[in-house]
């Protein structure tokens, strides 16, 4: 996420925040913000050193503008019955066997919960993290922007996933992006050229990964069509931001307000959370960066596992939405409507640096993870978490 220096200074001046429990001290946060203002830190958070990421990821609202997601007065109830036997569950990485206890001892792991039905069976936090601590989700947010598109279809704001982007964003009319369908965007198969290299400061995601509004559509309208829509999968954060633009245009409201009504209040989240804006008073980043607690990550998983049923017992989603959302796309069998498909009916929302909501409807299990991995993707730590989550979920099938 890169900000232009002037935008960053405006954001820092306009941002107000409060500390979450078990977080960095106020002095540490103030020092971090001062380094941003002075230019000592790169404006791209993806390039921060490990210690700085640990502060930035826990306190997004200290250095970026955000919109609030409000805790429910009647949060969805979770019982706690810790099962220490889960610490002995084994998994394999590169031919070597490890236990869940080994994973929990790794420094990048900030928090983890395993929920069986509505019961927390394992819950673990780093020393400076806790049940009320918020943590940035990165692309986990994509899966829930997708879910809100489903809600907007149920509410009649959007016709169907076969509608074209330009039907809701007329400023893209005549462009390649305007002609693709919402389903193409949901499945990351627009066929438009895009570079998602997090280590390259000049890549599309580094330059335009948090753009919103006219800046986003201006950038996307100039990108060339490389493939026929619906035929080639290409991971693209901007397409989820574009989906956020479609959502806001369709509902005539902010995505955060819709999220508050439909899920944070509608289902019942326990803790205050926030959703990143690209600049003060701008729209939310549809492809990134809701910050929430580990238990509310889990509640999000339970919500979709149960078909989007709210506290009143009614689904906010069209009939068969989650079935369609977790059906392999034509362009990539491992991806649905911004959900990563794991086989045997399991699926997950995933974000860089090791953020996860793993959902296994067959075994009635949800696993939520906060991490500060040593790099954005494809580290040994990622391999450990992926293998451990699958092993933990499968362990409940042996009951």
Could you characterize the architecture of this molecule?
By secondary structure, the chain is of the alpha+beta class. It has a domain of 96 residues: Methane Monooxygenase Hydroxylase, Chain G, domain 1. Helices cover 35% and strands 15% of the residues. The strands form 3 sheets. It has a 7-stranded mixed beta sheet, with helices on both faces. A 4-stranded antiparallel beta sheet has the order 1-8-9-7. Strands 3-4 form a two-stranded antiparallel sheet. Helix 6 runs parallel beside helix 11 and helix 10 crosses helix 11. The N terminus is likely disordered.
**Sequence of strands across the biggest β-sheet:** 2-6-5-13-12-11-10
The CATH architecture of the domain at 152-247 can be named as Up-down Bundle
Overall spatial form: globular
Helix content: 25-40%
CATH topology of the domain at 152-247: Methane Monooxygenase Hydroxylase, Chain G, domain 1
What's the order of the H and E elements?
HHHHEEEEHEEEHHHHHHHEEHHEEEEH
User: Structural class given helices, strands, pairing?
Assistant: alpha+beta
Mean pLDDT, nearest integer?
Answer: 92
- The top-level CATH class of the domain at 152-247 is Mainly Alpha
Separation of termini?
A: 43 Å
